[in-house]
Amino acid sequence: MSFLAILLATILLLVLLISFCKINPFISFLIVAFIAGRLLGIPFQQLASSVQKGIGDMAGSTLIVLCSGAMIGKLVAVSGAAEVIASRMMRIFGERYIQWGMLFTGFIIGIPIFYNVGFVLVVPIIFTLAHQYKLPIVFVGLPMLASLSVAHGFLPPHPSPSALVSIFHADLGKTLLWGLIVAFPTLVLAGPVFSSMIKNIQPVGEPPLITHLKKPDQLPSVFNSFFSALLPVFLLIFTSFIKYLVPDQSLAGQAASFISEPSVLMILSVLFCSLSLGVFLGKTMKQVMGLFEEAIKEIAVLILIIACSGALKQVITDSGAGNQIAEFFKQSQVNPLLLGWIIAATLRVCIGSATAAGLTAAGIILPLMSHSTINPSLMVLSIGSGSLMFSHVNDPGFWMFKEYFNLSLKDTFRSWSLMETIVSVVGLVGVMLLNAFL
User: Which residue stretches, if any, does this entry annotate as coiled coil (predicted)?
Assistant: First the structure.
């Protein structure tokens, strides 16, 4: 069996295990990694070591970032900072530009908060505002959810882009900067523009009216809410600016390089938020640590999935098949960015999980990068865009949107699935344009 046939059979097996057999992606990745390793010729006595190395390398490079991001997101949600951000953004944009207010609110909230948590968090805001201004709920909510989706697929510290940055050894600052550049036109088209075109979609019944649970005097200040939620971004921008101003070997340059490391940057942000959104708002340190424990429990399975995706990548590398894969795709003359997007998009449609699709595509594309001049940060964004393609019935996000918004299956396809497709396609176009000009 040729290496390409083995690769295709491996991907097909992964799809079958996740989609049809309903086996958790964590276990599926392990099964597929061992089978692929044997088919690719790795001896039994080396196979376990190869799988363990892949898991260890992936976990070692992403664990701190993922856990820290979950902790910050938990504090932003529980403290009411997200509610403060939403309220202030709506005061700025008003009823006339409510879609733009929802778009920017979702994006700001989406940067520190993981997607599923963010989704549940913003739904009460969407329902309350739709009721207050007597506007269609999909018209109000889709721009905010598009923002969450873009942040989830494009921007660290979210799980998939963080893992992809590690896999491709991409520059975190460039990935974030270029991700923001690609995100803006994507959000405009998938958010306000598209939702205005489907304004007539109505829920099957009336969605619930959810009011805010916190009193105004229990909420953090506007400055505290924005600054704490966006602190990782601020630190990254600040340290990148410092590194351009001072020599690398100077004390300031070395300090900036140290702080800009993703793990260090996120730990500093966690420590600050523990005080700003925890202790200074009346919580004890024990309560804050309890929230952190809850946050880790919520993403434990996700961490395992990401770690085990490294096993499949490692057996491809250790078997030597990676070089053959790279040579095959090099001869195909397909742009690596487009190829990465196609693979990720195909896996997304088949598997449903954006994270699993992106990580699997990265393992296939990685060998090609050593023979390519493509910037790794652009590859992160290309695969991230592909991993958001056409969410449908095998994606939990599809059902969350349908049930929360009380829509028919047809209208869920017309709204949610098409929105995700627009995000994916426009994201690819943005990446290709950046590649042409950089």
Answer: none
The values of phi and psi at residue 158, to 5°, are: -65, 150
Tokens standing for residue 267: 């730990």
H/E stretch holding 17: none
pLDDT band with cut points at 50, 70 and 90 for residue 369 = confident
Longest CA span, the chain: 67
Among 403, 397, 435, which Cα is nearest to 417's?
A: 397
Contact between 355 and 387 (Cβ < 8 Å)? yes
CA distance 76 to 117: 11
Query: Cβ neighbours of residue 278 under 8 Å, at least 6 residues apart?
Result: 75, 79, 285, 287, 288, 291
Residues 316, 167: contact at Cβ < 8 Å? no
Residue 155 · residue 106 · CB < 8 Å: no
CA distance 283 to 387: 38
Asked whether the predicted pLDDT for residue 325 surpasses 60, the reply is yes
Of 79, 382, 397, the closest CA to residue 220 belongs to 79
Q: Please count the other Cβ atoms lying within 10 Å of the Cβ belonging to residue 16.
A: 15
- Please state the rounded mean pLDDT for residues 145-160: 88
**C-alpha span between 323 and 325 (Å, rounded):** 5
Q: Residue 180 class from Cβ within 10 Å (0-12 exposed, 13-18 middle, 19+ buried)? A: middle
Enter the tokens of residue 395: 């994606």
Kindly report the backbone phi and psi dihedral angles of residue 219, in degrees, each rounded to the nearest multiple of 5, phi listed first. Answer: -95, 150
Structure tokens at 241: 């600016």
Cα(175)–Cα(153) distance, integer angstroms: 12
Model pTM score: 0.79
Range of the domain at 57: 3-437
Query: Which long-range contacts (C-beta less than 8 Å, at least 24 apart) are formed by 394-399?
Result: 394/19, 394/350, 394/351, 394/352, 395/352, 395/353, 395/354, 396/116, 396/352, 397/115, 397/116, 397/119, 397/149
Q: Are 39 and 136 in contact (CB under 8 A)?
A: no
In the chain, the number of structural domains is 1
Q: Tell the residue number behind the tokens 């403290």, with chain if given.
A: 79
Taking a C-beta distance cutoff of 8 angstroms, is the pair 191, 146 a contact?
A: yes
Cα gap 275→379, rounded to integer Å: 37
What phi and psi values does residue 135 have, to the nearest 5 degrees? -115, 155
